[in-house]
Amino acid sequence: MAGDATSEAAGAPPAPRAARLVRDAGVLRDGTPVRVRPLVARDRALLLAGFQALSLRSRRRRFLRDVSDAQFTRMLPILLDTVDQRAHVALVLYAAGRPIAVGRLQRFIDDPGAADLAVTVADDWQGRGAGSTLARELISRAGDLREIRTVVGADNTASLRMLARLGELRSDCATGDCDVVVQLSRSAAAARADAA
């Protein structure tokens, strides 16, 4: 991923509102400090660069299938244009002045107390707690949620562990993919209250 905590793409001017909303998000397990900011529509180049840098394994784990650069480019309007930071929250996590992860949380229209959660971490930052940190940030900004519902590849043990850290996890892994429901824990609720 290219850019820094206040710009959407290398050389692009900062999005003033997003730049003002950059905040500390704690430290990763290895002690690296991280910051977070909202994902904005002008982040198309940042997302594309980050996706292009992902290994095929990471792409498969995120999208549950192979996704080409061209397919991802066609997905960008879906990933960006519905972000309102209320029903569809999306964030970028930074370390050492560069984006290392993106994530989104989208409420279900028929059940706004539940949401889908997706996090993508740059290959060289995986295994350090970036996904868990970003997931907690997404939940804290989303407000009143009782559960996460998502689908994860059965072989994606890192994502399943991340989700289990959020609360009580139930999963059905019948066909190689797991339908996951996480009842958010009191610690996730406390994180939401602390962020308010």
Could you explain the architecture of this structure?
The protein contains seven helices and eight strands; from the N terminus they run αββαααβββαβαββα. It is an alpha+beta fold. It has a domain of 128 residues: Gcn5-related N-acetyltransferase (GNAT) (Aminopeptidase), CATH 3.40.630. An eight-stranded mixed sheet has the order 1-2-3-4-5-6-8-7, sandwiched between helices. The longest helix is centred in the last third of the chain and has 13 residues. The radius of gyration is 16 Å and the shape is globular. The N terminus is likely disordered.
Question: Concise description?
Answer:
The protein has helices spanning 16-20, 44-53, 56-63, 69-80, 130-142, 157-164, 186-195; strands at residues 23-27, 33-38, 88-95, 98-108, 111-121, 147-153, 167-172, 177-184. By secondary structure, it is an alpha+beta fold. It has a domain at 16-143: Gcn5-related N-acetyltransferase (GNAT) (Aminopeptidase).
